[in-house]
Design goal:
Strand order of the largest sheet: 7-8-9-6-5-4-3-2-1-10-11-12
Oligomer: single chain
Structural class: alpha/beta
Largest sheet: 12 strands, mixed
Strand content: 15-25%
CATH architecture of one domain: Alpha-Beta Barrel
Mean pLDDT: 92
Distance between the termini: 26 Å
Helix content: 25-40%
CATH topology of one domain: TIM Barrel
Low-confidence stretches: none
């Protein structure tokens, strides 16, 4: 049975948060002191994760993306990648397994992740300036992130996508430099509109850098040609100067793409979410640990989707941020 919601959207992408822990404290994500971590006993074990993923594959999932927090902080991340990559869908094919990371630690395990079956990687990088990176993340780790990117290139974990959040009076003056840096290395840069998912709930629409502003800035030095047939991808992509270089913009706020959404999210403590901004969750961990059958757990997927709204509602007057911050939901 396809994972279809009440608006005809078929869901094929399962994003799994392996942990809510992170080794950075980015100002747009966490307060300086961090946030309360989930109790260790609440986190899904590898066996529990595999069962949920297997059920998802049987219901139509084709891609699994591992997120956090910072997924590389989970010591069994290579094992988890290998076990997911070895699973099969009903047609005999294997799922595509990708990861979103801040890159810290990637230099040590990129080859092992590749050998385990990881197909591609997204790495967050908001600035190329070490001092600015320190102010933005409250950690002095830029060199580690660059080393992680270099390791991903060497391991051929392509396509390698770099995620950057442009912020006014923070790093907006670097958007051109970031693009040129990525183009020179064969990386696909994706700019992301800042979203209301911060733990401190200090997001302000008036200071958010919009997609239109990003296009205007980038077009000063480059010719951008829209790439058609976006499908369910969150980024609108552009050829840069005729290609082959590409840049993407994820405009969740000013140009929502909810109508084509094909994503479900599983939190590290086993809660299924139909949307980043969902106010409710469907519990998989409880029934799983109480002995529920595969059929009963599969029904949780469908029940979750039955409550999925047509859009995230950011632009509605009564919008409320989800209780969980981005670090506890997964990207």
């Amino acid at each position: 049975m396809a994972l279809e919601d009440n608006y005809g959207r078929i869901h094929r992408d399962l994003r799994i948060s392996l942990t809510d822990h992170c080794n950075l404290r980015c100002t747009y994500c966490m307060p300086a002191e961090g946030v309360p971590w989930l109790p260790r006993q609440s986190l899904l074990s590898p066996e529990e994760l595999m069962r949920i993923v297997r059920i998802g594959l049987n219901e139509g999932i084709t891609e699994v993306r591992l997120t956090g927090g910072e997924p590389l902080l989970r010591p069994d991340v290579v094992e988890i990648v290998a076990r997911i990559a070895a699973l099969r869908r009903p047609d005999g094919s294997h799922p595509e397994v990708s990861i979103t990371t801040n890159g810290i630690g990637l230099s040590k395990i990129a080859p092992a992740l590749k050998d385990a079956g990881l197909t591609r990687v997204n790495i967050s990088l908001d600035t190329l300036d070490a001092e600015r990176f320190h102010r933005l993340t409250r950690r002095n780790r830029l060199a580690d992130v660059i080393a992680g990117i270099d390791a991903a290139i060497a391991a051929n974990l392509r396509p390698i996508k770099i995620n950057a959040v442009p912020m006014r009076e923070v790093n907006l003056d670097e958007v051109g430099a970031l693009l040129d840096w990525c183009l020179a290395r064969g990386l696909e840069l994706r700019f992301i509109e800042q979203m209301p998912l911060d733990a401190g709930k200090i997001w302000d629409r008036r200071t958010m850098v919009t997609q239109a502003e990003m296009i205007e800035l980038l077009s000063r030095d480059h010719e951008l040609t829209p790439i058609q047939d976006r499908g369910a991808a969150p980024a609108e992509r552009f050829l840069v100067d005729g290609g082959p270089g590409v840049v993407g913009i994820i405009a969740s706020v000013t140009a929502p793409f909810c109508g084509a959404c094909d994503r479900l999210r599983l939190t590290a403590d086993g809660q299924l979410r139909s949307c980043l901004f969902a106010r409710g969750e469907s519990d998989l961990r409880g029934p799983l640990r109480e002995g529920a059958s595969d059929e009963e757990l599969a029904q949780v997927f469908h029940t979750c989707l039955a409550g999925k709204l047509p859009g995230h509602g950011i632009n509605e007057p009564g919008f409320l941020q989800p209780d969980r911050p981005m670090s506890a939901i997964g990207g």
